[in-house]
Design brief:
Elements (H helix, E strand, L loop, with lengths): L22 H9 L1 H4 L11 H14 L12 H19 L14 H10 L4 H7 L7 H6 L4 H11 L2 H4 L1
Length: about 160
């Protein structure tokens, strides 16, 4: 059974007539606290308010001194300074200053790299300067007949020569 909440006309709660008007008197008549209670239930010692100030001041003045722990002591200073020294050493060492020099490379290593890697002509052109290709450099180089013959035999095929 479904109920449409939009069509509800009554709230479902019922209160007797004049309920809220007579509520306070009906509760008080039912409980009858005035007849049962003779005193408030709290007792204050004689001269309490005249002595309380002096009692509090004597208790506060007798308070033991509190041990103060400083925030910065010798141990924390040593700890922080050792971290700072380690960071300073890290940046002052030559770990980040690596310069590459080609003087230590062997000729055979460079030759094997060029022969074994598939390098494009543009990549090879970057390695050479204009001075390397001047006419003067080629005039001074002389090759023997045996070196030329060995190069042709090792690097060229018969079909390349046709």
């Amino acid at each position: 059974m479904k109920t449409n909440l939009n069509n509800i006309e009554e709230s479902g709660f019922k209160v007797p007539e004049n309920y809220f008007e007579n509520l306070e008197t009906s509760i008080l008549n039912h409980v009858n606290l005035k007849d049962k209670v003779t005193d408030a239930g709290f007792a204050i010692p004689k001269d309490y308010f005249s002595k309380v100030e002096n009692d509090i001041l004597t208790k506060v003045s007798k308070k033991e001194p509190v041990k103060v722990i400083p925030l910065i002591n010798k141990k924390t200073i040593i700890y922080i300074s050792s971290i700072a020294a380690a960071i300073l050493l890290l940046f002052n060492l030559n770990l980040f200053n690596n310069t590459v020099s080609y003087d230590g490379l062997a000729y055979d290593t460079v030759e094997n790299y060029i022969l074994n890697e598939d390098l494009a002509t543009e990549e090879m052109a970057i390695l050479f300067n204009d001075v390397d290709f001047s006419d003067e450099n080629f005039e001074t180089i002389s090759f023997s007949e045996e070196a030329i013959q060995d190069y042709i035999n090792d690097n060229l095929e018969l079909n390349d020569l046709y």
